[in-house]
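Hello,

I think I submitted the protoporphyrin IX containing FE job twice by accident. Can you confirm which output corresponds to this input? Input:
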Amino acid sequence: MNKQNLTEPQDPYIKPNLQFVDDPFPVFDEVRNWSPIWKGKQSHSYLVTGFQQVSNFLRDPRFSSDINFGDTSHLHADSAELIQAQKYWMSFKNEPDHSQFRRPFLTELSANEIQKLKVTLDANVCARLKKFEQKGEQEFVYEFTEPVLFECIEAWFGIPENSRDEFFWAVSQTASHLPPSPDRRIYPSYKAAKILKEIFSKLVENRKKKPGNDFVSNVIKASGETVSNEIISANLMLVMFASYETILYFVPNAIYELLRNSDQLKLLSDDNTLIASATEELLRYCGSVISIPRMTTEVVETEFAVIGKGERVSLILAAANRDPLEFENPTQLDILRTKNKHLALGGGAHYCIGAYFTRMFVQTIIERVVEFSSRIGLPAIPPPYIRSVGLRGLQHLNLTIDS
Ligand code: HEM
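Support: Only one job matched these inputs. Its output is below.
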């Protein structure tokens, strides 16, 4: 790219506007064309938008996951407990703590274990699609994906019946999309997180006293004697947080993009063996995690920039997944794509631990939705995206179905 024909871009994160939130990809292209590793004069962090650079940095121990949250004293008192729990989250740990906290979850989140959830999930999805058919219309974010996800989580974590309502209230309130002022957004989230923390602490205590053959008991068993209750319950809570919003937004994103790209939908409905490659392509094309943070532990010299020690770095997965140096026709949804090592679920040591669950969950829903797809209608006005720069998801998706 000849830089002489370009002007230095504006950092989109300094004053993100609604246009950027709805469609960040042209701005990411502009930034990547200027430089795949770039920090504007007023930027707080380096923006890494090139596929190769994001992929390398995900695997480079000089890019620490133990990011400094800065001064948190201005946050509401309820946030203190959440910040305490976050100190134990595997996602913010480097080795050796990271592996120690992650290992106990590996068997429970493996393909074999996750596959056991499929039959119940499929039955729930079919029952809800039947209701959609009867009603003729259905909202797919909060009235379809969320309850289906909750039913799965309820069985998985073994949430006691008397805490169920509070639990699901708290889970849904942890979302970053809550309306509309920043204060109202932060306060209920932290309050809810505090409640979740209490529920998880009790769950771990009870399962330690009376173990069974369930997800939480098995994670406790696999943790051994050296990992404390506090660390186990903090990481159970992380698994909960990390699965809820990512899936809640990815599933409707995926359904929406398939319905909008009728040629791709037809390919899939004609040949359901394409479901696995379609899911990977949808993750690349409209994954729900836009970027993830890192912090440098030493000076990193690259062809494009010298990044100082202690610098914040945003690895923009959504930009990397549309880098033309890695993907042919990156702005096209192509479920037949064969070269597709996308980064929607991260890479390296912190690669998404919920990858099997994500694939199983999404594939189960999409396979069933595709069966009805020739009768499903999209909304007349394109739905807006949530007002977030870290996650990408629709605020609502109202679909209709012909009887
Ligand atoms: C569409 C769905 C999902 C997306 C797009 C997604 C994306 C990601 C990404 C990009 C990372 C890497 C973070 C980093 O390197 O800092 C990650 C890590 C993680 N994900 Fe997911 N995720 C999804 C679903 C899930 C689910 C269903 C679970 C739980 C069952 C989960 C649990 C986690 C956990 C615990 C980590 C941290 C792993 C570690 O630090 O070792 N995710 N996810």
